[in-house]
Protein: Tryptophan 2-monooxygenase
Organism: Pararoseomonas baculiformis
Amino acid sequence: MVGAGAAGIAAAREARSLGLRVRVLEARGRIGGRALTDHSLGTPFDLGATWLHAAQSNPLVPLAEAAGVELFDHDSVRDSRVWMGGRWASEAEMRDYGAAERAWHQAVRLAAARPGISLADAAPRGGFWDATLTHWEGPVIAAAEARDIDLGDYLATLLNGSNLLPRDGCGHVLGVLAQGLPVTLEAPVERISWAGRGVRAEGPFGALEARAAIVTVSTGVLAGGGIRFDPALPDSTMAAVHDLPMGLLTKIGLPAAGEDRLDLPPFGGLERRLEEGERAMTFVAWPFGRDHLQGFAGGSLAWDMAREGDEALVDLAFSELRRIYGARADRALRRADAVLSDWGRDPWALGAYAALRPGRGGAREALSAPMAGGRLMLAGEACHPNLAGTLAGAWLSGAQAARQAAGALGMPAGGSSSA
Ligand SMILES: Cc1cc2nc3c(=O)[nH]c(=O)nc-3n(C[C@H](O)[C@H](O)[C@H](O)COP(=O)(O)OP(=O)(O)OC[C@H]3O[C@@H](n4cnc5c(N)ncnc54)[C@H](O)[C@@H]3O)c2cc1C
């Protein structure tokens, strides 16, 4: 396996359960990939994946529960408030927002009859809440601008069901599930040769030969040529890689300076109503009663911040909060101790998760198509048809690739081979 994120861990566990001998090569000095729980604020703070979405169909939920991980239903305490510019939205306005959201989704679903269009083409415009809703569904949720998202894929990957928060973080969950797997850290794979009957991975660690390989790096890493394939990956695979460019979602953790909790309850959501073309950050306050505020910037705003640097993101977060709280925001939060993610510049991710370009349906399938009769497979969040962009999708894709590789190797149940 190349990569010890959700897909690589799932692939390794599945392959082992099918009797294959496995080795996971991971470029970083840690496992978890885009699930990373930071502790520098004194409590767990996920810099990447945060929620176990679609809990009812999420394979990580029963695994985490069986491992004794505590999961909390975030939806049971959702309490969002919306800044209208100068004041909070009233209860009546929040009801209106809810109705507008239902109408927005209905309009978008109706537009599905026009294949190949973008989410922006389908999204209603001009209504009081439309720009806010389109910004939420595009940059905030899908980490990409609505104009850059294929409508059919957006609808196919809409998440249903509850959203659970692991109390100790998603990075912790993957750490628990990876226990006992043979992972070599700080082993960046630079070249994969797959011309012969086996597969050979090379890097500063030396060379490793196996009968099959599952490569779980992001489409950002693949598009950037982070691994040289010999022979080159098929044109159809590379086309799929380019049709699934990485979006970006950036997170910031802002610790409280004192007792002031900005009148927000634990888990309180904070957003503002937007005009067409406006971009903004959103916030979740004091998760589990912990003393930090989480901020999110997505899509083009996040890419701009990645280009401008960490200070720009901190400035942005404070300028958003000052709109509401004025100088009180500066007194309530410790700017110097902010914790930030940097997935856009991280060479082992180069983004947060992939969004399908409009009109490029079929790319996720093409990306996960077995190569060399199943001896070389790509897996990861971008490969999953319905749970793309999530830990669950990455997990299921990795496990599926392992089963396909085992089948390609003609593994008799309980036999032994290497992948
Ligand atoms: C800010 C943010 C918020 C998110 N929020 C959520 C959420 O709330 N819920 C959710 O379900 N999902 C969320 N996601 C998405 C989720 O994190 C990803 O879908 C998932 O972690 C991807 O797993 P993966 O195994 O496909 O890829 P990765 O986790 O990227 O794993 C690939 C691994 O390959 C390694 N690698 C890269 N190049 C090489 C190389 N050359 N050699 C060896 N190893 C290499 C990487 O270091 C990495 O460990 C979020 C992501 C981000 C960034």
Remarks:
- The chain has a mean pLDDT of 96.
